[in-house]
Amino acid sequence: MTDNRTLRWFLFAYLALVFVFIFAPIFFSVVFSFNSDRFPTIPLGNFTLKWYQTVWNDPDVWEAARTSLTVSLSTATIATALGFATAYTDYRYSFRLKPIYLGLVLLPPTIPLIIMALAMLAWFAKLGISGQVMSIIIAHSVLTAPFAMAIIRLRLSQMDPSLEAAAWNLGANEWSAMRRVIVPFCRPAIISSFCLTAAVSFDEFAISWFVSGLNKTIPVIILEIVTGNIDPQVNAIGSFVFLVSMTLVIIAQVVLMTRRKKEN
Amino acid sequence: MRTFSIFKQTFRLPIVLWQSLFFIGPLCFTVAMSFFIVRNYRMQEDFVMKNWAKMLGRDYFWDSYFLTWGLAGIGTIVTMTVAFPAAYTLAFKVSETVRRWAIFMLIIPFFTSYLVRIFSWYVILAESGVINAGLSYLGLGPFVMLNTKFGTVVGYMTLTLPLVIILQTFALSNVDRSLVEAAFNLGCRPFRTIYRVILPMARTGLIIAAVFCFILSFGDFVSPYYLGGSKPPTLPILIVDTVKSGQQWPRAAVVAVVMMVTLFVVAFAGIMAAYRRRVG
Prior knowledge:
The structure holds 2 protein chains of 2 kinds.
Chain A: H1 5-32, H2 50-56, H3 59-92, H4 98-106, H5 113-127, H6 133-157, H7 162-169, H8 174-203, H9 206-211, H10 218-228, H11 233-263
Helix pairs in contact in A: 1-11, 2-11, 3-6, 3-8, 3-10, 6-8, 7-8, 8-11, 10-11
Chain B: H1 6-33, E1 37-39, E2 42-44, H2 50-56, H3 59-92, H4 96-110, H5 114-125, H6 130-137, H7 149-173, H8 177-185, H9 190-201, H10 203-218, H11 222-227, H12 235-244, H13 249-275
Antiparallel strand pairs in B: 1-2
Helix pairs in contact in B: 2-13, 3-7, 3-10, 4-7, 5-7, 7-10, 8-9, 10-13, 12-13
């Protein structure tokens, strides 16, 4: 391809700029969480930990952190289990209604969260299970199961189909072939799907806000503080939230990537 | 041989039950709820057209509707345009390793708190915020960026840009390189090559990216609320206000159903356009 040097550098600079735009809010949120001004701008004020202290001493935040942790770990467990079962079904079996089956599984992320929030709120009220931690967990599992399914399905498609058949021929029944062959092969995908679904659940605010009742999660607390006024506490909580979700995402990716390298 | 296998059903059935009960169930109930009635602050199951007549008969509903369309439309056009050179660079100008790392970086924000990022933009874009403070050194500004359509679109892009770049990069990576080179060798100028060769070949992926971008923007209440000023409210804000300010869930359900129908039509039109056979 005829390559124009100037054009090339222009494109690289542009790409860098796009990344600056994408990471600017994350970067500034962390910077401002250590900044003494109530309304942060440049030049920056003094270095301070007072926002972290405020947050640390707030019992509501601790309560919310506990709820968030319960919700995201439970969600990740349910969603990964559902996602694994579904991915395996798609991998191994073919049946007439499969397109509908897959649609049922993969559709939730295409429905706007605000609609899901309203629908879940009304449905849980109807079933008499609204306003509980369980309601958030159920709603989040519906939302995140497709991610789990996609990650594990990708992993299964890298597996040699004769592996499972070989296990059967060597006398393993379906259950022990599942336990000894399929699950170990999928382990990296299971770990990373667990982390990613936990991260999505940990950050989700619209559904949580609608269905949580008095059991606030961290994002709901943030939403309520933000609606009130400008309060740099949000930056402190936000930095913590970023730290948690980025750690989860990075673990997920590293687990997937290193395995791939080892096998190649 | 078709026998009932416990093993098979253990893996197949759970998701069907789960999604029927907690995904299809709630959505169908929302449609039904739009025909319910509220008496004495209590919702009663019924089948009346009152909520529909009330919502669709009001000007503010249609103001919201077209505003939401306009904002999501502008957001999609801007995001697709801004993303394209970046995706083009990632697809054609960098090595495999760089591309993998870039996509890794683009996945991260998708799983981090959107809400906190929007709050961060609120502080950055404010009249005395980072950008205006920076511009004042150059003797420019201050510019009003909050409570404008510009603010809303920045918010939408925070949500959609990484995803759109990823999808566009995949779409462009599937374009046959030898055809692009052939166009160059035959003397086709770069922009003409993009327009006549690359865009048509990447069409399916690009349209899917645009559809996702539109759906995400259309359904987002955070950006138009915190960065756009919410006057007039968009449809998602209308749902939030209706639900949070009282018992009028059926009216919120009307808005939700209108949104679902709209998005379904947009997605369907997009998919038709994406997979249509090229004529000629």
